[in-house]
Structure prediction request, 1537 residues.
Amino acid sequence: MPNSLLKANSKQKKYSRIFTMFCTVSLLVSFVLPLFAGDYYMRIISLIFIYMILAIGYNISAGFSGITSFAFAAHYGVGAYVSAVAITRYNMPFLIGLLAGALASGLVGLVVSLPASKVKHHYLALISIGLLEIVQQILNEWQWFTGGAGGMYIPSWNIFNIMLNNFQKYYFILIIMLFCVALQRNLRKSRWGRDLIAIKNNEIAAAGVGINFSKYRIAGYFLSSMLAGLAGSVYASFSGYLSPDTFNFEFTVFILLMAVLGGEGTLSGPIIGAVIATFVPMLFNATPDLKQIVFGALLVVLPQVMPAGISGTIKKYFKEIDHNKYIVDQTEQNEFDIQSNFMKDHSEMEDILVVKGLTKRFGGVTAVDGLDMTIKRGTVHSLIGPNGAGKSTTVNMITGIDKPSEGSIIFNGKEITGNKIFNLTRKGLSRTYQHVRLFTNLSVVENVAIGGRLFYTYSIFDSIFRTRKMKKEERKSFHEAMEYLKIINLYDKANYDPESLSAGQQKLLELARALYMKPDLLVLDEPCAGLSETETLEFSKIIHKIRNAGISILLIEHHMDLVMEISDYITVIDYGKKIAEGDPASVTTNPVVKTAYLGEGA
Amino acid sequence: MQEIVTALANGSIYALMALAIGIIYSTTQIINFAHGSVIMIGAMTSYWLLSIFHMNYFTAILLAVLINIILSMVIYKVSVEKLGDLTQNSSWIVTLFGAGIILDNTARILFGTEPKAYPFLFDGHVISIFGTKIMIHEMMMILVAVIIGVLYQIVIQKTNFGRAVRAVSFRPDTARIMGIRSNRIVLMCFAISGAVAAISGALIAPITFASYTMTYSVGIKAFAAALIGGLGNTKGAFIGGISLGLIEGIASMIVPGGLKDAISFLIMIIVIIVLPGGILSAKLFTKGELKTEKI
Amino acid sequence: MLQVENVTIGYGKTEVVHNISFHVKKGEIITILGANGAGKSTILNTIVGLHQAKEGSIRFQDKEISKARPDQLVQNGMRLVPEGRQIFPQHTVMENILLGAYIEKNAKKIHSRLHSIFERFPRLEERKNQMGGTLSGGEQQMLAIARALMTEPSLLILDEPSLGLAPIIVGEVFALLKQISSSGVTVLLVEQMANSALKISDRAYVLETGRIVLEGRGEEIRNNADIAKAYLGNV
Amino acid sequence: MKRKSAISVSSIILSLTLLFTGCSSSDDTAKEASSKPKEIVIGNIGAMTGSSATLGKAQSQGVDLAVKEINADGGILDAKVKVVSRDDGADPTKSKTFVEELVDKEKVDFMVGPTNSTPAAASMAYLQQNKIVSILPIATSTQLINPNNPYAFRLIASNAIQAEAIVKLAVEEKYKKIVLVADTSALGTDGMSVMKESMKKYGVTPAATVTYKADDADMTPVAEKIKDAKADVALFWTLGADGAKIVRSLERIDYINDLDIIGYTGLVMPNFKELAGPGADKVTVVSAGSWALEPGKTELAPKYWEIYQKLIAEYGEKDKRDTSASIIASGYDAVYLLKWAIEKAGTTDSEKVKQVLETDIQEFDSIYANHYEFSKKSHEGFPVSDLVKSKMDDMAYGELYKKAE
Prediction:
């Protein structure tokens, strides 16, 4: 990485230094703390560690995957009870009990999130209120299993026949907590985390890079409910006594408070949130009435004055963007050659895309009406027409965002009508959007790298444990992403926030992302809308490059200069019907086209 | 028969509470999680006015309605208005919860912890129809709920305000072009919702007793009813409320008492999954689909 | 009547409209032409108060309005017919029209305006109890205009009234606009259908990528070769 | 990056060594006995907010009043008494954390509470480990007092004692069909099981058992089930408001006249009659005899009456507070019991105080129960004989119930 970049971001550097120092110090403090803290603080900090695990679980759900759920007290409770029952009633070893608790909670999460994939996200929030209520009543009623309302006792910890004392418990919990912190971090810095964040940011664009978002949502919720269950299991043995009263509505609110305080979607948020949410109310221990009101007031005020939470606010101040070490390792500076990167077999059939009788009706309006169109391999094919002619609808049907009412689409010789967009990307189709759809919570280079997610092979375990395979693939992927950034001249902005880029740069970035998917057919939906003269010029140069690399392009554009200059073939539509077709020259002189554009009497 | 009357009476109050949730949902697409507390405050203040200041029933409820209107508007101002786009920013979940906690605790401090005997309308007079004893109060519960439902339906369908509410709920920006101040409409909806909550709280309090714990014991049912019937429309609220009343009645005969609510919520979850728009599938589901218009 | 001076508009960090100025005189029909993405709708939304300009001043009837709310502007006689018509599909035609008169509290006035609207648009009267969503595109456009006329605006702003309409209907719409204009209403039009719009316009501005590149009398612009270029390119 | 991972690796190693070499620190720090303490700290935990706030508040009022009096009078063994109160909101997790805080940080010498049974169950183990003598003035769960909890002493009649008493009443009065009614809360479940046990002891089987969710709006199903069982007596293990709702529902379905109701102390509630309506006169409860008026009298026995006046002077008449006098008295008594035991032992040493409580309790002049019956074997202080049958229909002074004939 060029040095200039690091200098330009000296604030980031400062942040990362402070951050590292802070982490080191707090880590050291938590290791030596038991030596002088005394039993009470040691136990309360152990409890905070458990809350951290819980908050990390919630963060993966709400912060990363964008699923708000109130059932986390229930997941926590299920984990606690299942592990307790496993240990006490079925005499399982402690560690197996932990796993059983986590797994059971994950399963409950799976069951409630499966239907949620169909439903808007705040519906899961509502389902989860019901779930919370149901779990609590079951804990109360299912006496032979849970001991009912009176609660149940769990024997002290016993690992490999060693009974743990408070010290050992503390360190044990600390280790589990650190494992979860590492898990969260590793997840965030891998394709899995990026995919989840992408879904939260922009569902459609996420689908556009091939993410089956409902599957990922479910997976994300499964993982987070498992962590909540793990926290519960640890809590069960830590506390030694369980009662359904613990896992109530108020506890859910406490989890929310941790998330709100710390900042959803940040790595340090759950940790900071857990610490502060535990300690601040303690200041009001002597005045219980005031404590409750302060608690409520915090919930009302904080999201309004500090929407990003504490760590989000700090991060914003420092404009922290992840330093990805794969970029720093970058040394080679050779000119990147798109051509060499597209070694796809060009000898297949000549027509890459054939559209027949494509029709789309919205209610009573027919937006696209029996459209036929054929795109030849290796050409730039433009689809033009006045505003509202049905171009975007056509493209949306081709790329699987809209379902056609009638007609068929054949891509590379295969019927793809009605396929979902995330399936099409694998088949070699990628697109950009009329209104830029970037992942604003990811850095510029990550935005490109996510385009290359199709070529990753490492599993979620590789990312959790940061295996060599994962590191290798990530490094390769980021190298390539940097190459694409070179093409669009954003090499020196790799670590920026996409929102800090100009409109033109954002469009280019989206293009780079689509390119990195190495498509056979690239669909560009008004790539130059809203760009300045010079930006448009730059864009056209890049489109030339892409064309020369042999990628077929379907282009929708209003800049006729650009269209005429670049297109091999043009289809003109109006009122959803094809009104003209041919090479650029024949289309411009066609009177029908002129009328369509300029109105009667042209 | 007795059970059916009770189920209907309770169900119609659940319907009112669901309606109040729907009123806010219709214009803002948010669910008022402080609603339980607002119901409770309605019941507690009217009890206070009735028994401490010895007002007559009508004035007491009227005043409680007024207090609730102001309270609901304050809730909107304090915890919702500044959040901006509520479909994007889901912090309202947290802030409304917070508002609820403050209200609950304030109520406990002000009104005390003991459940209060809230007087029945017409002194709990019972009339006997075909051997079934029906309290006039229960008939009033059903009657008042129906009247409010019909009134709301008329307001929403026939008046300028109602048209504006529907306009804001469908296309807030276009509504603003019409000269409608969307914020003010939302504020009005909060106010109306508060008023309805006060009446529903006052009507059900004689049965559950007035207490600061009503937030959970009664309020939570409003959500179940609203979701079973479908959010944001009057018919849905009534169907949801009455079905919840009946479900509870049937469930308590079949399962152990402690699992009754679990059954209600289970049914709620199944309804949400199978018919995301509630029994009367509302337009909601379309909101979750990919928006095809502007890509 | 309307003066827009050095106005810059953007969403977040992206600037969409750069430092533009134009004015509308009383009684005129003014057209702003431009291709998709040129920033036309953004300008209109800013004028009617749905969006805030980053810089510059907007004056309406000699009053600064760049910070005014939409309802205040409607009160002062400015009305927007939005792009894509945006009628309320689940309100009846009648309700749509009445919503147009939302700020008008005088029932008599509403009644008499309703009367004259139905005189002008007999089709709407025929369908007044139908849901808005069941109307055809042209009828919806009529409804959108009728709705805007319910407050008797002094400045009527239309965002691409020709969008998605068949050519014959487009002709009808423009004829209607001419007629409305002759009844004393100032009209500001944003269009892409240059020829049809310019035929009825007194003056026009041509917008390209957020800048005004051309301005002049309607006929002048219509005959200007550059206008075709803005749409069909330099061929 | 590398630095960070190095740190974390080394710290994991460090922690593992710590974990398995076992840094056996002194977990069980025995209470240091000093014969002349400077300050005696009493912990007080209860639910002062949330849905069972009444009880916790009452306990606190009793404790506070007693400590105020004791300090004004020169303290215990010339040491000032300090109370540290915490609100656990009836949540066992919070309660346990607070107990740990009070024991480890505030270094309390004695405990009063926690008020609710599940919080008490959750925190009991820690109190025992640290040998804190704890007085339970309110929690009634049977399990709380057992040989595993050698430092816990209970003042109130436990669930088992009360169940025994009400079942005995029902059996002695020769009811044929006995129905057991309880909610599904911790209290209700425990109550149900002890009632069933007592029934077994007397060789009778209940005609039906009915459970419901506490605080439920509609109690008609409960009433219907009682009616279906053709019960002639129903034993209520319910809280006051719920009990009142059931009574009302029984009235609605015209069954109240065929039924008598006997409830446990939790049913007692000052405005029960107001809540339950005329059916309330069919309800009798078992209650602490010292705090029930003899038929025809207007004052309690002088000792109790004096305390009652004191409570009123401090916290006002019934309508000024929503806590009940007898429960305040129980909290009040807890502190005086500690004072007496410490002074008698001459030290705050747990073992010695415990011993005094176990052996010399008959010397203590109690004001909640008539006397307490602690022994080495049993830490249940409430004498069964002190449970009397009281009427619920009308109360004196808004809170004192009257003995039934």
